[in-house]
Design brief:
Length: 636
Amino acid sequence: MYEALLKATPEYQKVAASFGSAGPAALFGLPPAGRALLYAALQKDLDRVLCIVTPGEAEATHFADDLKALGLTAAVFPPRDFMLRPVEGAGREYEYRRLSVLGALAGGRLQAVCVPAEALLQYTVPRTEFIQNTLTLKPGMVYNREALVARLFAAGYVRRSQVDGPGQFSVRGDIVDIYAPDMRQPARVEYWDDEIDSMSSFDLLTQRRDGALEKIYLSPAREVLFGSTAETAEALRDAIKKARGKHRTALEKATEADLSQLDSGLMPEAMDKYYGIRYPAPATLLDHLDAPLFILDEVGGIRDAQKATEFRRSEELTGLLEEGVLCPGLDVLYQTMDDLVIAAQSNSTLLCENFLRGMNEFKLKDLINAEAFAAPNWNGDLASLREDLDPLIAQGYAVTLFAGTPKGAAALTRDLADKGYAVSMSRDVRPAKGILQVLPGHLTAGCTFPFAHAAVLSSRRHGLDEEAAAEAAREVVPLIVMELGKPSDAGLPDTPEEKPRIQIPPEKLDEIFSTHSVSELTGETLPPAEANADGIDFDEMQTAMKVLKNQPHTTEDEQTARRVVSELEGTEIIEYVKLDPVVRKRILMIECQLPDIPEDAPAEKTDEAIGKARKIVFHADIDTTDIDAIDFNILH
């Protein structure tokens, strides 16, 4: 609803018009929460991918979360540390996150990318190389298994005995498990000869199949792709041959250890320093975008953050050059703030600041001012919410309120309707003065737009939402497995390897499942084996129940019942049997070895006879639950 009101204002129309040509325009007056709302409206209106550049990763994450709540598919393209020193192994989770974003952009699955300035200015795999090393697989497709393995090696994947994280694959007979960086779950490809018979996702920990897949996209697993070890060694030696003088000597020293490893058939981990050799024409994230809505958010903050980054980076590269790990030509890995200014001039760009600041390095084509105010998050109290709503409604504002979960939004809608507000949960509600729209979701903060007579409020976010929690689990679980190794190393039982299912031909069923006795197979009749098991048999149990139910029985039956009851003591069987009050009484009598009192027993004894019985010869504590009466007489 707020989008329709924004689009009707001159301020919004100026901003939208500025994206019709190359060059930067500047927008002032909107707080960060208001800018997120504006960016979402622009993307839906112009139908172009947003590229929002921020000073740091925290700001990029906030924008991505807000854009998701506003209905866009958004992701963060994070910065990463290039691996330049020789290492045995390293975590690549940030590199995988970057590749995942590139894969989503190539597949047209993203509407917005939020990127810190440092990450935007880091070189990455060129778009053509990325697409050439992306493979689509479908069931029924003929693709040789050995060719697939070679393709995965060329795309930077690592072979393992069992897949436990992104960027890996394993081969077991006719089964190939693959975990691409942009996959939510790894995929299992089952072959029948050279044909892909079936594909399914599977759980990383249990290694069990989850569901069938119609197709999978296998994007590259490295940003610097050389192919096989032999091809990589040849490319490095060609670069050395082209070098001259001191540069050649320095290059030979910097590549000596890596060439030795490549000649032994192993791919070094620290291949990022050869980016300039592999890609003569470097590329950044912007090269993966077609006519984006290019936005520099908080230009002053970007300038300060990039200045600090370039100083830190210069110190690091200088040390590596002095150590001989790098040489001139191998240190070309980043762009600078000057390159960002050039990119802003060549793209349709919007420079955003909350307050008016100097932007002398940019040639601005327009200055736009749109005054708005940040609104605090709602804490869940209806009374305090009404205190915020009533002034806005009185001024004729149309208010959109993000109320958390769908259940919470529905409950809040009922409460507000009971208080007399004109409220709706429809996303297509027609804007009107005093109307209140309640939607599920959270924003970082709310914002009021006086120039549009619109306001957006939000409830406070509590912890991770379901999608964020699932995403965190997908990122953390592979890291735990990678760190701890096998489940047994973490104190858990190892998951048995799933074996291919074997089917028995129908004509063999009778032969396999037929039953033959020993005498039929050998011709000999064996004597029956003697019983060698202890315990209570069914006959003894039946005899005991006959005694307990006071059915006709013998003295021997009573002895059997007494033994059975004692052996069953403490078991669920005896507890179940005791539920019958008659049986419970009989058990007490058997345990105490009391004789039954016949129905025609003599009348009660006289006081004189009872008075003589003074000596206690037996005492027992008896549980009388569910028993109406017990005839218990022991006289001496």
